[in-house]
Amino acid sequence: MHNKNHQYKRCLRTLAMATALAMPIASMAESYMVVQGGGLNLRKEPSLEASVLGQYPTGTWMTVHETTGDWSKVTVNGKDGYVMSKYLTVGASENTMYVRTNTGIGLNLRNKPSYESDILTSFKPGTAVKVLSRGNEWYKVQIGEQEGYMASRYLTSSIQSGSTGNSSTATKQGVVKNPGANQVLLLRETASTDARVLGYFRNGTAVTITGESGDFYKVTVGNLKGYMMKKFISVSSSSASSSYPATPFAAKLSNPNGNSIVNFRSAAGLSAPIIKALPVGTEITVNEVGDVWCKVTIDGVDGYVSRYFFTVKK
Questions:
Q1: How big is the chain by its Cα radius of gyration, in Å?
Q2: Can the peptide bond before residue 46 be classed as cis, meaning omega within 30 degrees of 0?
Q3: How far is it, in rounded angstroms, from Cα 184 to Cα 229?
Q4: pLDDT of the residue at 154
Q5: For residues 56 and 34, is the Cβ–Cβ distance under 8 A?
Q6: Long-range contact list for 295-302, CB < 8 A, 24+ apart?
């Protein structure tokens, strides 16, 4: 009888282990991951039948709270919901880039991919960083033993341009110019309207033009490379910043998209909070000129305006 009881208990333990292994495993540690493979639906519940709360393009950073089975509970742009885990990634293959700031000021390393997050430390121009994960506007990087997040617009693959803040090779720069203020321009994988969509971009988004193919420009937008239709991009010269007067100088807000206002932001980036939407013609003082964003003073308040949205006062 004793032997039978022992065998029975052993069978129960084996059954319990098998049941535990068959259950979906939940990961509870909060992390930051990026969308891959096109527009990803954020749903109210972990089900394909659940209502869609929003859709987010490749490269969007999401805060992942837990993962159970095929679904991850996330927060993105202030919204909570669920996305399919297979469309999230921790990043691409590692590579080395270099800090590049036009002002010579160090680049902040932050604990989250956001301008509102805590600053861990900063690194001077020319510092080599190991890129662990690429997303829109933010890269996860490692410098020595430290890991964190840096604004991608201040990282370059060239140590020469990273150490001086200027590229020796003249390249075309452009800005998205859709016919409608609420429209988006598609970034495609190849130069075709049938090609896979890699991202969606609103008016004012800065792009670097690296080539042409028929009706398309080959462009780089943040960490993404692809093709955009020429007719929806306003082209300027990348050397335009060197033609500005010595800072500080006076300028007036303008809007090449035809809108009557320009956003005045608290930091350099389209995701930065808007201090105020100001009318075209407002006088500003430009204190620092960057590749895309310029530090300015308006009515005694410091902030940032894209260099595509002001003209030098005559």
A1: 24
A2: no
A3: 12
A4: 83
A5: no
A6: 295/268, 296/251, 296/264, 297/248, 298/264, 301/264, 301/275
Judged by DSSP in three states, 209 sits in strand
Q: Would the CA dihedral through 46, 50, 53, 55 be positive or negative?
A: positive
CA dist., res. 282 & res. 99, Å (int): 33
DSSP SS3 for 38: coil
* CA pseudo-torsion sign 205, 245, 126, 265: negative
3-class secondary structure, 85: helix
Distance CA 75, CA 63 (A): 5
Nearest to 298 by CA among 313, 287, 289: 287
Instruction: Report the SS3 class of residue 243.
Output: helix
The predicted-structure confidence for 228-253, as pLDDT tens digits, reads as follows 998 888 876 444 445 678 888 999 99
Residues in a beta bridge with 274: 265
- Is residue 20 a contact partner of residue 12, using CB atoms and an 8 Å limit? no
* Per-residue pLDDT tens digits for 146-196: 889 998 888 876 554 333 333 333 457 788 888 877 788 999 888 888 888
Which residues in the chain come in under a pLDDT of 50?
Answer: 15-28, 160-170, 237-241
